[in-house]
Amino acid sequence: MDQTISDILNSVGQQQVERTVVNQKSRIQKDDFLKLLFTQLKYQDFESSVDYKDLMSQLSILTEIEQAMNLNKQIEDLSKSISRMNFFYASNTIGKNAFLYADQIDVSGGEVQMNPAFSLDIPAKDVFVKIKTAGGVVVKTIKISNVSPGKHYVIWDGKNDAGNTMPDGQYTFEVEAYDSSGNKFKPSSLVFGKVDSVSLDNGAVFVGMGNIKFEFEKIIELRN
Description:
CATH class of the largest domain: Mainly Beta
Number of domains: 2
């Protein structure tokens, strides 16, 4: 054989210690290592000190692999527990208004389900909120003046600049601001709306507003 069982064990053991990501169906399990060891034991020459040292080394590698597997299982269980705790905690946000980092808004049944919002670190003389279609076309520009630092939201009636009602769907927006000297700067884009659902998807927690789901971690403030 070009590659000894010892070489195989050392190679796979190193992969486990380094936590190499592999497909679950192709992952070599502990039972497979034991089969390899038993096979080698069958042909082991215990009168050879070299073979004996190799065997001890292989047993040490197997112990390290088992510990790594057990640790991965513990981390996986802990991750699931944290996800469940976050889900139950997020459930308390249902019915509350929230500011969260996002730039998407939803129009459903002719009604805007959440408000475009933004956060300022410094005062702004003028702030422009531009509502866009999914294709990036600006359909509505909302201007507010003399805005203080902090979080703010604007009301969009779901109509374009010509006064026509926009169709249902998802829209994006961008925010531009100008200070008292006319210098342009970009505030943080937020949305503000009522949380109406909470879901758990593949370990991640999401809060729903209308037809859009946002990552729970994006919430930065709750208001009753």
